[in-house]
Amino acid sequence: MKQILTRLLIFAICCIMCIHTFSISTHSVIYILLTIILAFGTMLIADRLSPASLTLIHAGIFILCCMIPELVVFLPLFCFYLSRRPVCYTAPIGILAIILATTKFSVETLLLICVLCLCSMLYGYLTTELATLHQQMKHLTDTSETNELLAKERIRMIRKEQDNRIYTATLKERNRIAREIHDNVGHMLTRSILQVGAIQTINKEPILTNPLSDLRTTLDTAMNSIRSSVHDLHDESIDMEAAIQDMLNDITGFHTSFEYDMSNIVPKDIKYCLISIAKEAITNAVKHSNGDQLSILIREHPGFYQLTIHDNGTDIHLTDTPGIGLTNIRERVQSLSGTLQITTNSGFRLFVSIPKHTQKGDRTA
After folding, report:
1. Mind listing the pLDDT tens digit for each residue in 142-152?
2. Domain boundaries, the chain
3. What does the alpha-carbon distance between residue 187 and residue 131 come to, in Å, rounded to a whole number?
4. Which of 87, 132, 257, 299 pairs as cysteine with 295 (C-beta 3.0–4.6 A)?
5. What is the DSSP letter of 345?
């Protein structure tokens, strides 16, 4: 917009000089109309022209000014692009046109035309430089935003990796504690229970019968409590992602992919179910599929857990009586009020959906 207003201002000054020099006549009107067509037509298409084409147009305009000296009064309008290469090489033709016009214009008018030409060239140069700086600034801004996004993504991945390491270390520590409780405290309690039982067997003092019985009950209760705690620790220490990844690492003949998007708090029955289904499906694919690609997706949604297993095998024969493997999978899914879908379009695809809330209660609590 500023460029258009500046050119309109230069055009108005040139029109005033034209009318002042030649008065209002048919010729002056023709010169003005011709200038409007050439100057503003060039302005509209300049950005779409190659440098060579723009140079040829300016050379033609300057030659026309040499042939019609009266057009020199509008020469400032055509000097806007003279700061560019190779358009600047046409400047001598413009200078020649001014020299040839000395018979048509006064010295003052020619000096004003030269000043306007220089101003137009300077404005064109500054406009080009500002446009270049604007593009560079835009590029730097885009690059900065891209780098910022990449940095944020890198930080997010680092934090996720750190969380995974902490989670894995926590699981290992739970396993270690469970083993130590089982191997040490559990064995000592078992030995104590056996010793109390032996004492009860050989005891002949009625006064010791009830205390020994109470002691045996206390030890049995402690043993059951430890067993329950050890089992809970073991269940919580199951790393479902690592377990399924290990299964995929053990198979050959398939290009495998595994996408895992689950929180760290997954009920143990869900873990056992999904791991068992994945193991059964991987075994079936290895035994029966003629494909070479196997993908597994496990994702947690707000209301349900999703497991999708797909291989690109084409030799698929589903019968009315499913095999033991598919029967086991269906029973596991149904036991958790889930749904199982099997499709054979573009390979064998198994889709499992297990809701987070069931009639048995909220497993996510």
Report:
1. 888 888 888 88
2. 2-105, 168-236, 240-362
3. 82
4. 257
5. T
